[in-house]
Design a protein that fits this description.
The structure holds two protein chains of two kinds. Chain A is of the alpha/beta class. Chain A has helices at 2-5, 8-33, 50-63, 77-85, 96-99, 104-107, 118-130, 132-137, 166-169, 181-189, 202-207, 227-230, 259-269, 271-283, 298-314, 321-334, and strands at residues 37-42, 69-74, 91-95, 139-140, 143-158, 173-177, 193-197, 213-217, 235-251, 290-291. In chain A, the strands form two sheets. In chain A, strands 1, 2, 3, 4, 5, 8, 9 and 10 form an eight-stranded mixed β-sheet that branches. Chain A has a two-stranded parallel sheet with strand order 6-7. In chain A, helix 7 (118-130) packs antiparallel against helix 13 (259-269) and helix 10 crosses helix 15. The longest helix of chain A has 26 residues, at 8-33. Chain A is globular, with a radius of gyration of 25 Å. Chain A starts with a helix and ends in a 12-residue tail after the last helix. By secondary structure, chain B is mostly helical. Chain B has helices at residues 2-10, 12-29, 36-51, 59-90, 98-131, 146-165, 176-183, 195-206, 217-231, 235-246, 250-266, 274-296. The longest helix of chain B is centred in the middle third of the chain and has 34 residues, at 98-131. The radius of gyration of chain B is 24 Å and the shape is globular. Classes of the chains: A alpha/beta, B mainly alpha. The A-B interface holds A 28, 31, 44-50, 53, 56, 60-61, 63-64, 66, 68, 72-75, 198-204, 222-225, 227, 277, 280, 284 and B 92-94, 98-99, 102-103, 106, 160-161, 164-165, 167-168, 171, 173-175, 177-178, 206-210, 213, 243, 245-248.
Chain lengths: 346, 333
């Protein structure tokens, strides 16, 4: 019986079906055995956070590129970066400050006072996404920066709103993230006293009056209840001292060759959406707290910012010279009357 | 008719409505281990309660109706999120419809999240009208209203979490969480099954700097879970599982889930507070379902069990010679 059915059309059909089944099973086997790449995401709000959800969308998008991503949330940034270093993650999402030691080129986008407006930040992120020259510099020692997410301009919060000039900050205590080298240098430059702090202590130190000032971006205002430290006398200086970003860094060898470009394009296409989170957080801060610096005082800040940047570039290797130069060009294109545009220090 | 208008204007009716809701309806519902009936009641009664507003509003009643109505939309949000997670693991990457299926479920979940956040936030706002600011210093809370205050704390916490998941659609302020953490000290932790401490510690663990630097919030949460377990109302276990999962701490979440399972096996549900224990069960079950689906593709068969990790390929060499190899009783002759 069986030999009869194994010959002729029916037999061919049977063999074809068996072969297709084997191929199908082999494919399924490959899919189940092909391990997903781990992406370790720092989001202080955990899985409910905006950035975890963005990375969830990213993973979905990446699946259409044939890349399977397993997104793992971390509420502790240092642990996320350490796990990346230990190769437990194929990619990591952390602030530029934390990733500076891997490649100072992309993290220099956070340079002190380098991008004083959001349109300039957007222009810079676009340039980094589209420039072929930048693409080469975004990879260093096998670590590729494959996305930049804005998380808000960093502002100085003061308990006494009369402290609103560079000279008045001298001698004041400023809560400073000790792993953030640029801030440490800037605090020294203005002659203020550095009080070491971290994400968990910056709010209590400011609110309890242990420090005179701190610096954060707007999304920290509500959860840290910083209005307590601002009280009736304090204020927020509406002059960005830096642009904080989350950056996506991936181990180049773990991903296909075209992954980096697609990834950067994904985050660029979500730039406005992520800026929306920041704008919402800034809008939630009562207008009475904002301190607008008189135009006459701004050059003092600009000068202090520039001296800090140059010091960090030349003496601390914290900033990339090429990146500082491009950002200076963009500032001068925006406003050619800036004092720095008359000379070429960056 | 004029008598009703007069009573409304004096606020008599609202007081009666408040007392009827908290003393009678909640009094009955709390002993029934069913969340769907109170949720349906909350949805259907809310507008009727609003219609009794005169110069005053029945804020305690509206706190309860909004809080229970939120549980209806919450269960729908959970279901849609499970649908998204199932599509992620069950559909192969090459499936053209995979992304659409996942996105559709996520969008649907976010819509239900927004509604849930709005209802819980409404509940919290009514609590603030009824008790004053939900924060310290503690307001004077009558013993019979403590359960309503507890609902407000839970509602406040969930309003933030669901709003975040809906992309901040409702705009629930994030400083609500530290307020809830402080306000939780206004209730007796022993009396309320460790829930006040669990909420406080959970928020401390979620927002850095909100708690004392020298305290391990997770240790408090674990102690609270034990306390709740002993009383047969396991809300603290559910809070622990929920927040551990949110923080990405899978090992800790698994401990809360298995602990919950052990507690169910060892401690009978409190009959007096069966509703709260049932709600806690559903919160924990959702966390468990997410984990089961992510691991094996289907939801929890029994709360407290964990999906078995796929063993490595069996090495036939390890076992030595197959005793059935040559003499397979089922083999062909």
């Amino acid at each position: 019986m069986s030999s009869k059915y194994n010959t002729g059309i029916a037999g061919s059909l049977q063999r074809f079906v068996r072969q297709c089944t084997l191929v199908g099973l082999a494919t399924l086997g490959w899919m189940s055995s092909a391990s997903a790449q781990n992406v370790c995401v720092f989001d202080p709000a955990g899985k409910a956070g905006d950035y975890y959800r963005l990375l969830d969308q990213y993973a979905l998008e990446a699946s259409s590129w044939g890349v399977s991503l397993d997104v793992k949330v971390y509420t502790d940034e240092e642990t996320a970066v350490k796990d990346y270093e230990a190769k437990q993650c194929d990619a990591v999402v952390a602030t530029g400050v934390r990733l500076q030691r891997f490649n100072s080129f992309p993290t220099s986008i956070e340079a002190i006072g380098a991008l004083p407006t959001y349109p300039l930040l957007k222009d810079m992120v676009k340039t980094l996404t589209t420039s072929g020259g930048a693409a080469k510099m975004l990879t260093k020692s096998g670590n590729a920066t494959v996305g930049i997410i804005p998380i808000g301009a960093v502002y100085v919060l003061v308990r006494d709103r009369n402290i609103d000039t560079v000279s008045e900050l001298a001698g004041k205590k400023i809560a400073t993230m000790d792993y953030d080298k640029p801030s440490v240098v800037m605090v020294e430059k203005i002659g203020a006293i550095m009080v070491p702090a971290d994400l968990g202590s910056i709010g209590p130190k400011f609110n309890n009056g242990d420090v005179d000032a701190c610096y954060v971006s707007a999304p920290a205002y509500q959860p840290f209840e910083l209005w307590k430290g601002l009280g009736d006398k304090g204020g927020i200086v509406r002059l960005p001292i830096a642009q904080a970003t989350l950056q996506v860094m991936a181990r180049e060898e773990a991903f296909p060759a075209d992954f980096s470009a697609k990834s950067r394009q994904f985050f660029w296409s979500h730039f406005d959406e992520t800026m929306g989170y920041v704008e919402k957080a800034e809008a939630a801060i009562p207008s009475k707290y904002w301190i607008d610096i008189p135009a006459a005082d701004i050059p003092d800040f600009d000068d202090m910012f520039q001296r800090s940047r140059i010091d960090l570039r030349d003496n601390h290797s914290a900033y990339n010279a090429k990146m500082l130069g491009v950002m200076r060009d963009k500032r001068c294109k925006m406003d050619p009357a800036r004092a720095e545009c008359a000379e070429d220090k960056e | 008719m004029w008598i009703l208008s007069w009573m409304l204007s004096l606020g008599c009716v609202t007081k009666i409505v408040d007392r009827m809701t908290v003393d009678k309806i909640v009094g009955q519902a709390q002993s029934v281990g069913d969340t769907q009936m109170p949720c349906a009641l909350g949805e259907s009664l809310n507008h009727v309660l609003m219609a009794t507003q005169g110069r005053k509003s029945p804020d305690l009643a509206l706190l309860i109706s909004n809080g229970t109505a939120a549980m209806c939309s919450q269960s729908k949000a959970w279901e849609e999120r499970l649908r998204a997670e199932r599509a992620k693991v069950q559909r192969p990457l090459s499936d053209a419809y995979r992304v659409a299926e996942i996105k559709d479920a996520q969008i649907s979940a976010a819509r239900w999240d927004a509604m849930t956040a709005r209802r819980f936030y409404q509940a919290f706002n009514h609590a603030e009208k009824a008790f004053g600011t939900v924060d310290t210093p503690c307001p004077k809370i009558a013993e019979r209203d403590e359960v309503a205050y507890l609902v407000a704390l839970i509602a406040g916490t969930f309003s933030v979490l669901h709003d975040k998941q809906s992309d901040g659609t409702i705009g629930v302020p994030l400083d609500l969480l530290p307020k809830v953490a402080r306000a939780s000290t206004c209730l007796d932790n022993e009396k309320w099954w460790g829930v006040p401490d669990a909420l406080k510690a959970g928020i401390w663990a979620t927002i850095p700097g909100t708690g004392p630097a020298d305290v391990d919030p997770w240790a408090i949460l674990e102690a609270s879970a034990e306390k709740g377990s002993a009383s047969g109302v396991r809300v603290a276990y559910a809070v622990g599982a929920l927040l551990a999962n949110n923080a990405g701490d899978a090992d800790r979440m698994k401990r809360f889930l298995t602990g919950y399972g052990t507690s169910i096996a060892e401690v009978d549900r409190s009959q007096e507070w069966a509703f709260f224990d049932q709600y806690a069960y559903e919160v924990a079950l959702h966390q468990s379902d997410l984990f089961w689906i992510e691991t094996v593709g289907y939801r929890t068969p029994k709360l407290g069990t964990l999906p078995a990790v796929q063993s490595e390929n069996l090495d036939t060499e390890v076992g030595g010679e197959d005793p059935f190899g040559s003499e397979d009783p089922f083999g062909e002759e």
